[in-house]
Design goal:
Mean pLDDT: 76
Shape: globular
Structural class: mainly alpha
Low-confidence stretches: 1-16, 21-42, 364-422
Oligomer: single chain
Distance between the termini: 65 Å
CATH topology of the largest domain: hpI Integrase, Chain A
CATH class of the largest domain: Mainly Alpha
Radius of gyration: 29 Å
Number of helices: 18
CATH architecture of the largest domain: Orthogonal Bundle
CATH superfamily of the largest domain: Intergrase catalytic core
Largest sheet: 3 strands, antiparallel
Strand order of the largest sheet: 1-2-3
């Protein structure tokens, strides 16, 4: 008689129920007089346990509670939809996940977030040697351009937003558009490029307002990169910051008012006549404008990346620098001022001309020898005269650059690694 096999085809998020089922499975062979089966292999572990262990590992790595909860829900939902019960089912499950993402009625950004979460989980399983390889490595991200992200604001537009916000805040409560005090958020974001969540958690003690050494220190537990970061402050913003901070306790929150809501920013943008460009305006628009103004001022990309606090300069160039705000015409005029178009005084030597004719008859070079257009263009960029902006603290300068706008922030680094054009 064949040994009694008790197969459990149960998927449940309830850990207690799974333990009860495993207890029954271990008792039945003893009661039926059947010898114990060999210990299950690593790949027979339930995916639910693997997800829980991965969540515990994320907690140990210092990941945010909200992020871990979202990743856990995503993985559990995918495992149920694809029918994965054990890690053996995950092996070679790339087509199942790709079909699930294809049939999913969601935005490209949501599908990419799901794929990235499953990939990270599978990579963790590979490192622990619980599965031999990542079956989802070859699944491509859903490419989408011109997404619904907020656009960058120019220095003049940022000034207009601050002006209309302060005018509205000065009105009586019954006449103002909103009771929200948002102009300090606008001013600090324009001067530092801080993220909204970082400004929300900063304390007064994180500011150093000493002239020549003024800076904002973003603690590791507040910064997105989980490392201490310092942003220098221009001397032109010190009078406003000193008046705003006053004599408050260093442990007090820096921002006195809550984060402005989306409809408040929409009202200020409409009052400043900034609509009609196809993209929304949010608090992140000030950060994008800060990074774009740095690039336009002629600052090296390494400096722009450091002030933007990005781990990859390609993320800064592809997502945050908007080409339509760069002074391209000034760069062309500066190039012409160097004598670029004056060729009437150049005399060609006959021998060199003959050499050039002979060279022109040579076979065309292969595509491997042709330099990348964007790399060559980057080497020929010209910078023009720096002019102070109305913002007081940033400068707009002649420089040129390239932008691959439209990619979301979460995808930019992945695209930069996969796409050789970035």
């Amino acid at each position: 008689m064949e040994p009694l096999r008790f197969e459990l085809l149960v998927w449940s998020g309830n850990r207690l129920l799974r333990k009860i089922c495993f207890g029954i499975q271990s008792i039945i062979p003893h009661t039926c007089g059947v010898s114990q089966q060999p210990e299950p292999s690593v790949t027979s572990a339930l995916v639910g346990d693997a997800v829980e262990r991965y969540a515990a590992w994320c907690h140990a790595q210092g990941k945010a509670e909200r992020y871990v909860a979202q990743v856990t829900r995503t993985l559990e939902r995918v495992c149920v939809a694809c029918g994965w019960q054990t890690l053996h089912d995950v092996r070679g499950a790339g087509p199942a996940l790709e079909d699930y993402l294809t049939a999913l009625k969601a935005t490209p950004k949501t599908r990419n977030n799901i794929l990235c979460a499953v990939r990270a989980w599978a990579n963790w399983l590979v490192r622990r040697e619980e599965i031999p390889e990542n079956p989802f490595e070859r699944i491509g991200l859903t490419r989408h351009f011109a997404g619904p992200g907020s656009r960058a604001l120019s220095p003049i537009e940022m000034d207009a937003m601050i002006r209309v916000a302060e005018e509205d805040e000065a009105k009586p409560a019954e006449l103002s558009r909103s009771k929200s005090v948002r102009s300090p958020w606008y001013r600090l974001s324009r001067a530092t490029g801080l993220r909204a969540l970082e400004m929300q958690k900063l304390r007064v003690g994180n500011l150093c307002l000493e002239p020549g050494r003024a800076c904002v220190t973003v603690p590791a537990k507040v910064a997105k990169g989980r490392r201490v970061q310092r942003i220098p402050l221009a001397d032109s913003v010190l009078p406003w910051l000193t008046a705003y901070v006053g004599r408050r306790d260093p442990l007090d929150l820096l921002m006195l008012s809550p984060r402005p809501r989306k409809w408040v920013l929409d009202g200020d943008a409409k009052a400043a006549n900034l609509g009609g460009l196809g993209q929304t305006i949010g608090l992140h628009s000030f950060r994008k404008g800060f990074v774009t103004a740095l690039a336009a001022s002629g600052a090296p990309m390494s400096v722009t990346q450091e002030l933007a606090r990005h781990t990859d300069p390609r993320l800064t160039q592809a997502v945050y620098v908007e080409a339509n705000l760069l002074p391209l015409r000034q760069a062309i005029n500066a190039l012409a001022a160097t004598g670029y178009e004056k060729s009437e005084n150049v005399e060609l030597d006959s021998g060199r001309a003959a050499d050039s004719m002979a060279t022109s008859q040579q076979p065309m070079p292969t595509t491997q020898n042709i330099p990348e257009p964007r790399a060559a263009a980057r080497e020929s960029l010209a910078t023009a005269v720096v002019t102070n902006s109305l913002a007081g603290g940033l400068a707009v300068a002649g420089g040129s650059g390239f932008s691959c706008g439209g990619l979301s922030t979460e995808q930019a680094q992945d695209w930069a690694r996969q796409d050789s054009n970035l």
